[in-house]
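As a warm-up, study this chain.
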Amino acid sequence: MKLIGLEGRANQRFGQLSLGEKQWLEILMLVVQEPGLLMLDEPAEGIQPNIVDLIEDAVSKLPARGIAVLLVEQFVDFAVGVCNHFYMMERGTVVAQGPTSALGQEMIDEYLAV
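Now compare it with the structure written out below.
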């Protein structure tokens, strides 16, 4: 994976990067280790849209590299762009599951609307 989005940052300390750049770099550092499973907890939360797009694009390609992804995410568009199967939980109980292609607006409104 390329360091797209981090060009020109090689001489900066980690603490000088934005939250999104840190998240992106952390994911890249994990992926180069070629794990069998990558678990991500809300990687799109509070991140600027251009970095979210980079993360979504990269994570969606991981299964083709033999890396399974377990994603916890409230941003539905991101989750649908990355995952092929979903589980929705309410108070620790799975209330809906299936292929992301079956995730309809009615289900989103019922379980995910604030």
